[in-house]
Write a structure and sequence with these properties.
single chain, 670 residues, nine-stranded mixed beta sheet, globular
Length: 670
């Protein structure tokens, strides 16, 4: 950036960056140096910071969708700058040709005037999902109602079928549960329609093109950045053709980002200095990317813009592949994935995707404390299953594709159960009760009926189906506030040989019997794990038994009663998978280091990595970084939470180039 650069009044810093706060295109990794000024950017992202009534709860969505848009433009090598609703309202639009509004749910009257003035002056808008009806009419759109909570797989792909807009990908994959119903005005036309997961049209437009710009009736979600970037770039270039030339880097130093590297040149420098076993293959691919970029520059000099951009896209893909090829694949590690009982679009596709990436295990849940996702004779079958047997389908598909299937139990939590069942548990005094006397939808582990139910369900799972293992989950209390039911009081007093006068005060941590009760409630979980292990091994000798556990054994053995180190020490479980869900690398490293110290040589273990866990956001690079940290700290594998189409599209193909490039076989039963 030139030393003479002076920020415009609307130019606010609103986006995270790999290299520090970013304001203009030069500071966005991968943007061509030729675009290194505000005036060079033809595109602005308008981040939604005016969110209206109840908008504070939507701030995270606004940031997420703005980031996804920025990631897509960055992947397409489109220089951009960032402004906000409030800046546009006060100062008007920056001097760009096209503005993208990723999630602007409460455009004010003043901001509407500014945006309409921008269009009247020749500017174009690309608006996603939300938007005032007056504004959308400039884009050729009659806006209808919002559709939220659509069935999984209903909206899975944006299908383009036009010939007069150069560079549009034929289809862009995005599984979404929410769209806005729309129709075109006389001045608008549909250029893309929605497909479901099976590739069938669902009768809903996806993109409408009008005189004032384009409208996408869905939020742009993270993932598939290359395809979404190509889509945005084509729409932008339709209005501002100069973007084509900007999208062809002048040299390897300007082609990027490439994984954690700013450019292809930086990757070449590292590969040239490393002695890793994977270096040769990765270096060959990186050099091929440099050669392809040279071909793109030649096409650009010949004036063949779209061909040059397509060739630059190929060079970028080759560079990214070179980075992923540089990782080492280790033998003998567990490469697993947690899952629900009915993945989209089906189990065969899910298992095929996992096998193609050399994953070797899957841990789907099939039963909770109140409902079964299989043909159970003990609990009612979940209504979502219909006539299907998801567990039978999963076992068949797993074995066909060489994947080990470890059926997972959501042991003490009655998730997904009919409310009548949960109410019955409460009326029968089988539910956990808080210190304040409130029952919940968890089963009390000290109740003999609940213990018997858990053991029978475990045996049913492993004998009725040829599963390759059983995993315990939710084998704990909801927190330190549970369980203080009348049954726990009676059984504690009897087994401890005491009379508790003040219940629950006397058994809480600071109470007279606090330490005794802490040990007793933990023992209830231990005994249940032991009973399940004994029954399962009697029914299926040698079948691996594992547990998904909380990260801090030293703390959580008290708060959640989950003494999983003792489970390993007693041999009740063969391995554990701590759920190390965090996007902070230092925290992850600390947790895994502690787990390694606690487990020692008791058993192998696999870390849980959560790109899709609540309150955790990990892109594929962050997942790779955590896998590498876990390997260095002694973990023998990893389990990703959880399987979904985005994992298959945006993560597995990259991992398969290096980190999981070779098959690995694990056998962790004792």
């Amino acid at each position: 950036m030139s030393a003479a650069f002076t920020p415009h009044p609307w130019a606010h810093v609103v986006r995270r960056s790999l290299v520090g706060a970013l304001l203009v295109v030069l500071l966005v990794p991968g943007v061509p140096a030729s675009a290194a000024s505000v005036d060079a950017a033809l595109v602005a992202i308008v981040k939604g910071d005016i969110l209206g009534p109840g908008g504070q709860a939507m701030a995270g969505r606004a940031q997420r969708f703005a980031d996804a848009t920025a990631d897509a433009l960055q992947a397409a090598r489109v220089p951009y700058l960032v402004t906000t609703d409030s800046a546009v309202q006060e100062h008007g639009m920056p001097p760009v040709a096209v503005a993208v509004l990723p999630y602007n749910r409460a455009v004010t009257d003043r901001q509407l005037q500014q945006l309409e003035g921008f269009i009247q002056d020749g500017g174009k808008l690309i608006v996603c999902y939300v938007g005032r009806r007056e504004l959308l009419r400039h884009l050729g759109v009659v806006a209808g109602d919002f559709v939220r909570g659509a069935p999984p797989g209903r909206f899975a792909g944006i299908d383009f079928d036009v010939r007069d807009i150069a560079g549009l990908p034929p289809i862009v994959r995005q599984y979404t549960a929410e769209i806005r119903t729309v129709s075109p005005t006389a001045c608008g036309r549909i250029i893309a329609r929605w497909q479901d997961a099976d590739g069938n049209e669902v009768g809903q437009p996806a993109v409408i093109l009008g005189q004032g710009g384009a409208y996408l009736n869905f939020p742009l979600l993270p993932g598939q950045a290359q395809a979404k970037g190509a889509m945005l770039r084509a729409l932008i270039a339709h209005f501002a053709p100069g973007v084509w030339r900007q999208a062809v880097p002048a040299s390897a130093a300007e082609l990027g980002p490439v994984g954690p590297y700013r450019s292809l040149a930086a990757l070449l420098d590292v590969l040239g200095r490393t002695k890793a076993p994977t270096r040769r293959r990765a270096l060959h691919q990186a050099l091929q990317a440099a050669s392809t970029l040279g071909a793109a520059r030649k096409l650009l000099e010949e004036g063949r813009l779209q061909e040059a951009v397509a060739m630059a896209d190929k060079a970028h893909r080759q560079a990214v592949e070179a980075h992923w090829m540089s990782y080492q694949s280790l033998p003998g590690e567990l490469r697993g994935c947690w899952a629900g009982p009915m993945p989209q679009p089906d189990w065969d596709t899910a298992m095929r995707n996992l096998a193609a990436a050399n994953f070797n295990a899957v841990f789907p849940y099939f039963v909770s404390a109140g409902t079964a996702f299989y043909n159970s004779t003990i609990l009612p079958k979940n209504t979502r299953c219909g006539d299907a047997d998801p567990l039978a389908a999963a076992v068949s598909a797993a074995h066909e594709h060489g994947i080990k299937l470890h059926a997972r139990m959501l042991n003490l939590q009655a998730l997904f159960a009919d409310r009548a069942i949960i109410q019955a548990y409460k009326s029968q005094h089988r539910a956990m009760v808080s210190a304040s006397g409130e029952p919940t939808d968890w089963l009390c582990p000290s109740n003999p009926k609940n213990r018997d139910l858990q053991v029978r369900l475990a045996v049913e799972l492993v004998t009725k189906y040829r599963v390759d293992g059983l995993q315990l989950d939710y084998m704990r209390y909801p927190g330190s506030d549970y369980c203080y039911c009348a049954g726990c009081r009676r059984r504690f007093e009897q087994q401890a040989g005491v009379h508790v006068e003040k219940w629950p005060d006397d058994v809480q941590p600071a109470g007279r019997y606090g330490s005794q009760f802490d040990a007793w409630r933990r023992q209830q979980i231990d005994d249940l794990v032991r009973d399940i292990a004994t029954a399962v091994r009697g029914a299926r000798p040698g079948l691996p038994l594992s547990a998904a556990v909380f990260v801090r054994w030293d703390l959580h053995r008290h708060s959640f009663g989950q003494d999983w180190v003792n489970w390993l020490r007693q041999g009740w479980v063969d391995f554990v998978c701590p759920m190390d869900y965090t996007s902070d690398m230092d925290t992850f490293r600390h947790w895994v280091s502690l787990q390694g110290e606690w487990i020692g040589d008791l058993a192998p273990w696999a870390v849980g990595i959560g790109p899709f866990a609540t309150n955790t956001t990990l892109d594929v690079q962050a997942v790779a970084d955590q896998i590498q940290i876990a390997r260095r700290l002694g973990a023998r594998g990893f389990v990703i939470f959880n399987y979904r189409p985005a994992l298959a599209l945006d993560y597995l193909p990259y991992l398969a180039l290096g980190l999981t490039a070779r098959p690995a076989i694990f056998d962790w039963q004792k």
